[in-house]
């Protein structure tokens, strides 16, 4: 009997210890959850954190026609709303990742119990909400078991809070916006764009299944890795199987979709590729200053790469595309001519410089190279670095047929790139000042200097309309007034010159008495010299400044022939003033900027200024029309480019001006129709590298064809509504512009008021 009593007591003792242990364990779990929720094991997200999770949202650059042309990001994430997700994608996600998603409140008790019993062999039973909690606030965490348990507890707490804070639909959207699909694609919108070149709403069922399949291990199931094609296909089909199991699609539909191959339209997004690359970099520099001048309500700066701003720009995505295509099409042809012309030339591509000057150019190029920078950081001497430039190395080089792998001495690669023609092109609306296209070079990846906003180059004869405008305004002249094209010398000392100045015409000929219209049309230098001698350089500089030119302009007579460096951006803005009836509108590229919640935080106001009256502006426009009717730009009417027969055949009025620097280093063309002004510069990086002959080096050959190709594309697109109408003529115009008007029959004793003045400057 005594033995039996002892056994009973022993059993009671076991029960007491069990319940004691259970109580301690239960209390420990309660305390663990409480301590975790109070932040004892690390900060927990607050109510505000849950309401506005830190999500590294990319800033979007949006064109005037609603196309995202680029982004600024640390992580390439652009949020998508639940309504923008296709239902088959949502159902595939739930069927594969969390079948009881709509039944639980953040924690799947049944799945968790199964995971504990099976020791995680069938998965960790993390719900979508738990995965979201981890992605938002913790990441992968520690591999140490104790820390992993604490992290899992925190995930449970955050998941429950998320379920209270958000609807199921919002949780799904948040989840898909957070997932990293590799290859720079964070979130489903970026993934759809990069892998398929689509918006999420346009994804097909099999494409949606592909992305859901990637969630298990995005790197392993990366569809852009050809070696893993079968693995990716099998994983996608597994997701389709889950969709059948959960009644999303039928077995027959799965069989049909499973046979389809994985098709990608892979377009990785980077800062150096895509549309409007030079403009985007110019915008980035602008935004660096903008964030300092436009602070948040709490006084902190916006983060351009994380705060999800939306920058609505004036750029038109189609015009931008046409501009880039026009540049590529013409320069591809022109570059062949340049290489051909330099083939047997000594010291190519440089012309008329000494060996010492060539060496100086080469040394500067070496010092500016990435090779020099890296070797210098690694402690190499100057001599060792220079010597390395003569050792052949594997490299990729830019060609118009695409990137080319080659073995080349770095010095030879420098010479190769010195041969490459560069360009700057900008188009804007004269009335609004909105910049519609911006091409700063031929390829941003290889040539990052922006020849629109950064590069000021000698403008040549494109400066002459500023001089003619000054003469018309100050001397009361008209395009129909005559002037003598003859040998002219400005004496030493006049207007501050230190030697006699006798400019020559480019063809070496003199035409005698001609109208101002014909003088500008044929870019007659002697006439420009006579005009600036009459009005003075200071007045011309003042006119250019009023027209928005901010570059340094010397008050010297030589500016009459364009001996001044100005950017494409400034030249187009200035010329647009004449097309806008004498009102200068500062070129602008931003319509508005919104924060990630769609609140407008900046909306720039156009900067305008009256510069000349309508009559003077219209007279200059008519002068520039003469350039394309019978002057240096007349090939726009019949085609040709000096070496290629481009078919333009424009029949509408075009105001334009070509320009060529003295040694052919710079070729320009500014072309305008009533609602679009476009300027183009073409030349080499170094002014010592250029065409030897004006036949090839003039603006009519290098720059004008780009304008022609661009405008043909614009006119072919009716959505752009680019004008073919005449420029608006002011009411009661007081300046004579129709120089071909027949002479009136007048009394021989009367003063011929309707005849062109044959006396220079009315003297």
From TrEMBL:
Domain Penicillin-binding protein transpeptidase: 425-675
Top-level taxon of origin: Bacteria
InterPro entries reported for this sequence: Beta-lactam/transpept-like, Glyco_trans_51, Glycosyltr_51/Transpeptidase, Lysozyme-like_dom_sf, PBP_transglycosylase, PCN-bd_Tpept
Membrane-crossing residue ranges in chain numbering: 21-41
Pathway: Cell wall biogenesis; peptidoglycan biosynthesis
Any one GO molecular-function label of the UniProt entry: penicillin binding
Cellular component annotations (GO), alphabetically ordered: outer membrane-bounded periplasmic space; plasma membrane
Key words, A-Z: Carboxypeptidase, Cell membrane, Cell shape, Cell wall biogenesis/degradation, Glycosyltransferase, Hydrolase, Membrane, Multifunctional enzyme, Peptidoglycan synthesis, Protease, Transferase, Transmembrane, Transmembrane helix
Keyword Metal-binding attributed: no
Sequence similarity: In the N-terminal section; belongs to the glycosyltransferase 51 family. In the C-terminal section; belongs to the transpeptidase family.
Name this protein carries in UniProt: Penicillin-binding protein 1A
């Amino acid at each position: 009997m005594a033995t039996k009593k002892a056994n009973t007591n022993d059993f009671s003792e076991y029960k007491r210890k069990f319940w004691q242990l259970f109580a301690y364990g239960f209390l420990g779990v309660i305390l663990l959850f409480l301590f975790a929720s109070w932040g004892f094991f690390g900060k927990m997200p607050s109510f505000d954190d849950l309401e506005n999770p830190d999500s590294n949202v990319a800033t979007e650059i949006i064109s005037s026609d609603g196309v995202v042309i680029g982004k600024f990001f640390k992580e390439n994430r652009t949020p998508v709303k639940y309504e923008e997700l296709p239902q088959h994608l949502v159902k595939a996600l739930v069927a594969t990742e969390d079948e009881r998603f709509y039944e639980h409140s953040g924690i799947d008790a049944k799945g968790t119990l199964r995971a504990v019993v099976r020791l995680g062999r069938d998965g960790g039973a993390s719900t979508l909400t738990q995965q979201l909690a981890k992605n938002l606030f913790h990441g992968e965490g520690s591999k140490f078991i104790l820390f992993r348990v604490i992290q899992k507890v925190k995930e449970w707490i955050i998941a429950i809070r998320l379920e209270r804070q958000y609807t199921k639909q919002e949780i799904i959207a948040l989840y898909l916006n957070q997932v990293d699909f590799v290859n720079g694609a964070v979130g489903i919108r970026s993934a759809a764009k990069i892998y398929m070149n689509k918006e999420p709403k346009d994804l097909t069922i099999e494409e949606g299944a592909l992305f859901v399949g990637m969630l298990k291990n995005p790197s392993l199931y990366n569809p852009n890795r050809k070696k893993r094609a079968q693995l990716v296909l099998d994983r996608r089909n597994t997701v389709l199987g889950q969709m059948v199991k959960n009644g999303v699609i039928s077995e027959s539909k799965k069989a049909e979709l499973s046979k389809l191959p994985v098709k990608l339209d892979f377009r990785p997004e980077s800062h150096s590729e895509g549309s409007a690359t030079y403009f985007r970099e110019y915008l980035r520099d602008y935004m660096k200053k903008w964030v300092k001048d436009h602070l948040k309500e709490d006084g902190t700066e916006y983060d351009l790469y994380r705060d999800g701003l939306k920058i609505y720009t004036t750029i038109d995505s189609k015009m931008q595309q046409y501009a880039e295509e026009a540049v590529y099409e013409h320069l591809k042809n022109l570059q062949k001519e340049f290489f051909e012309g330099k083939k047997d030339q000594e010291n190519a591509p440089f012309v008329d410089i000494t060996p010492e000057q060539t060496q100086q150019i080469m040394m500067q190029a070496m010092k500016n190279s990435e090779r020099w920078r890296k070797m210098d950081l690694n402690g190499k001497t100057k001599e060792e670095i220079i010597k390395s430039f003569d050792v052949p190395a594997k490299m990729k080089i830019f060609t118009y047929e695409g990137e080319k792998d080659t073995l080349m001495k770095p010095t030879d690669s420098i010479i190769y790139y010195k041969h490459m023609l560069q360009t700057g092109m900008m188009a804007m609306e004269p009335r609004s000042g909105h910049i519609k296209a911006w091409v700063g070079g031929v390829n941003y990846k290889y040539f990052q200097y922006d020849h629109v906003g950064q590069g000021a180059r000698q403008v040549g004869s494109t400066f002459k309309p500023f001089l003619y405008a000054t003469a018309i305004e100050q001397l009361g002249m008209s395009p129909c007034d005559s002037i003598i094209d003859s040998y002219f010398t400005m004496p030493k000392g006049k207007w501050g010159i230190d030697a006699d100045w006798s400019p020559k015409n480019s063809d070496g000929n003199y035409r005698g008495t001609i109208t101002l219209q014909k003088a500008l049309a044929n870019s007659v230098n002697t006439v420009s010299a006579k005009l600036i001698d009459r009005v003075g350089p200071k007045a011309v500089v003042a006119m250019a400044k009023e027209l928005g030119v901010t570059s340094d302009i010397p008050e010297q007579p030589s500016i009459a022939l364009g001996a001044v460096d100005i950017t494409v951006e400034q030249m187009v803005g200035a010329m647009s003033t004449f097309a806008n009836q004498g009102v200068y509108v500062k070129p602008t590229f931003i319509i508005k900027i919104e924060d990630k919640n769609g609140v407008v935080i900046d909306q720039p106001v156009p900067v305008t200024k009256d510069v000349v009256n309508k009559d003077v502006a219209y007279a200059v426009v008519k002068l520039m029309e003469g350039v394309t009717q019978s002057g240096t730009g007349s090939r726009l009417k019949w085609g040709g480019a000096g070496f290629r027969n481009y078919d333009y055949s424009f029949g509408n009025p075009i105001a334009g001006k070509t320009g060529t620097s003295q040694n052919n280093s710079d070729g320009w063309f500014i072309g305008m129709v009533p609602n679009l002004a476009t300027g183009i510069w073409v030349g080499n990086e170094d002014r010592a590298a250029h065409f030897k002959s004006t036949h090839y080096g003039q603006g009519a050959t290098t720059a004008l064809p780009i304008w022609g190709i661009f405008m043909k594309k614009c006119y072919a697109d009716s959505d752009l509504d680019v004008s073919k109408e005449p420029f608006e003529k002011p009411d009661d115009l007081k300046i004579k512009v129709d120089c071909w008007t027949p002479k009136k029959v007048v009394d021989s004793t009367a003063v011929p008021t309707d005849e062109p003045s044959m006396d220079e400057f009315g003297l």
